[in-house]
Amino acid sequence: MQLSIDLTGREVLVTGSDHAARQAVRRYQAAGAVVSRLSTPQGASHDGPLPERPFLVAAVDDGQPGWEALLHRCRATGIPVAVEPAAGAAGHVTLVGGGPGVGELLTVAAVKALRDADVVFYDRLAPYQELPSLTTAELVDVGKQPGHHKVSQGDIEKLMVQSALAGNNVVRLKGGDPYVFGRGGEEVAACVAAGVPVKVVSGVTSAISVPAAAGIPVTHREVSHMFTVVSGHAPLTETELTHLAGLGGTIVVLMGIGTLHQLAAGLRRAGMPAEMPMAVVERGYRPGQRTTIAQLGTIVTAAADCTNPAVLVIGEVVRVAEANRGHAEAAADLDRLAASLIES
Description:
The structure is a single chain. Helix content is 34%, strand content 22%. It is built from eleven helices and 16 strands. The protein has helices spanning 18-30, 67-76, 108-115, 131-134, 153-165, 184-193, 206-213, 238-247, 260-269, 299-302, 317-343, and strands at 11-15, 34-38, 56-60, 81-84, 92-97, 119-122, 138-141, 144-145, 148-149, 169-174, 198-201, 227-231, 250-254, 277-282, 290-295, 310-314. A five-stranded parallel beta sheet has the order 7-6-10-5-11, sandwiched between helices. A five-stranded mixed beta sheet has the order 12-13-16-14-15, with helices on one face. Strand 1 (11-15), helix 1 and strand 2 (34-38) form a beta-alpha-beta unit. The protein starts with 10 loop residues before the first strand and ends with a helix.
């Protein structure tokens, strides 16, 4: 059961050590509450006068003995007690995969890391619009666009390390998965070199999720038993194109609009038939999502007005999606016909 309570102007007493309770304090302050603190069960350390009868007691489990007696007295006198998780150990970095940009596809571990963060450095492809509802941390936009880096990669790594060394729980929120063209390995190496504890929370990669949003399976029984993920930031070499064309299966290209012309021409030179079906899925899961389907020989013209962020899918699985879409449309037509017959 989830309850929503307006805490604006309400007195809330947050119990627990300063370190363990720091994020709970921020959450209640962000909700508009007037927050008082009790740092020890004996009340020897607190900030300002304590309310005689708070609207709510937020009990942070800081591991200290002695809190239960106080909380029992609160419950006995009718003061509600909310149990809050303690903040994690300070001074570490968590690389979090944000998936294809919507909060619904964040993992439970990602949500927990954001809740416990003091600072979040986020990218433009991460679900940054939803961060205010997921964390009370300081939010820092370090997003990079093709040809324009708001903050360089080296500077991002320095900011992460410096913030963690200052005692903060740092989250580096990235689109997709940190280890799929996300430069997560470089960021982990920078933390390790500086002696900063670091962990990685995997995310839902757009290489799978964005085709799925368009109804395209990257593998399908008796159609494709493998898929290859390729970065589209730079043109492939002739050797790479030859190997890629000879692998079979499905080819998924991330951020490949800028090199689409070279890719299509190169795969044809490497022997891939011009009739091979191909799809361009723009803005997966976001407003304005659009899928353009053509063949390898015609995709450049068909996708002339397509823009990044986009995922390219090359392979017979695109036909599977088209067939499924046809069945879905036929089923929808039957539903509409049935509804009209019932009405008449």
